[in-house]
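Reopening: structure tokens for the flavin mononucleotide complex, inputs below.
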Amino acid sequence: MKFEHLFSPITMRGVKFSNRVQRTSMASGLATEDGNVTEALTERYIREAKGGVGALVVEAAVVIPSKSPYNIRLSSDEYVPGLKAMVNAIRAASPETKIGLQIMQFLKLSRSGWRQRVEDFKPEEIPQIVANHAAAARRAVEAGFDFIEIHCAHAYCLASFLSRANKRTDQYGGNLTNRMRLPVEVFEACRKEVGENFPLGVRINGEDFHLNGNTLVQSSKIAIKFAQLGADYVSVSAGSSFEDAVTPAEGHPPDPMSGYSGHRMSPGFWWPDGTHVFLSEGIREAVREAGYETPIIIAGKIREPAHAEKILAQGKADVIGLCRALLADPDWCVKAKEDRTKDIVRCAACNWCFDADARYEKVNCVRWPEGLLSCPENFGPAQARPGAIDKKLL
Ligand SMILES: Cc1cc2nc3c(=O)[nH]c(=O)nc-3n(C[C@H](O)[C@H](O)[C@H](O)COP(=O)(O)O)c2cc1C
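Re-run output (same inputs, fresh job):
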């Protein structure tokens, strides 16, 4: 086989993933306003799973009852049946694909420009954060997911506790040991809920990419700690922070995707392919040196199967995370496996999808025919919508 590493299986706690491609979490805006699953959402995931990914991480499910329109939720038992039906439908369409769920607590925002900070949590409120994640983990198991990912990356609650920008003066802030305390408590509580036979991964930032953020120095230590706790994988992402967000327009909440760090999360066309591979390479080396074999996942503008194969062959990561590349062409895996690489509809890294998300719109791809919410079947070489990318700027 041409891409031997990419299409070799990997097993985590007895769960076998058929290849080394993980579709990373991607907010879609396709849930209902109150966080329920829709037909469009299920169709999106069915279409992606049918393209042959080993693992598919369903977008961040909110673990707290606060309002968060169009994000899926797991803040109460009432959301379990909808998610269960979706998982069953994806599994029926693609029995080989293992289906995961990212669980996430966000920090609250207001149109007045106010945003909740980690320093705002009173000490007596911290156990609730742990309990929220643990309850969501239990519900995800009930809904039939194959694995869970705890969201400790980007601008959300747990990543903000991990960040050097966390200036709490109690045991949950300040030095790195203290900043890791809450994510560690969350991980341990989730493990208790899901048991020893269920894969539980974490997503962290390899670098926050703002002045007060973590770098590889801190993220390596964070990854080692999760490896020591028995995390089944560490998925390495980057960026997205309120610290360097641009000042929002009047009546709009702050947007963690608006600054430099935000744009690092999903590198645009002006960044090189494999933008963040140096982060997974550094983290993997540190984790291996500490004596752990924990799989390290890397995403960030990896678009070509040959490039993905090389990253794995060179030991710079164990699993390749694809997000926008699979949105552009959900058949990426099937085409790579069948040696039809030239048929892959390339992600232009134009961030049409990213911009839609930032505007709280439904996320789709510039390369699909106008108006479609999912990639059409029999997706051949794409006809891009004109004007998506100005090649002169490359
Ligand atoms: C529209 C959009 C929504 C995203 N939502 C999430 C999310 O909910 N959770 C997450 O961990 N990452 C999220 N990401 C980041 C992706 O998972 C991925 O790490 C990033 O886009 C880089 O990978 P790529 O170059 O393959 O797209 C999102 C990215 C985009 C473009």
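The chain has twelve helices and ten strands. Residues 24-27, 59-60, 102, 151, 153, 203, 237, 265-266, 299-301, 322-325, 353-354, 357, 363 surround flavin mononucleotide (CB under 6 Å). Marking as resolved unless the reporter disagrees.
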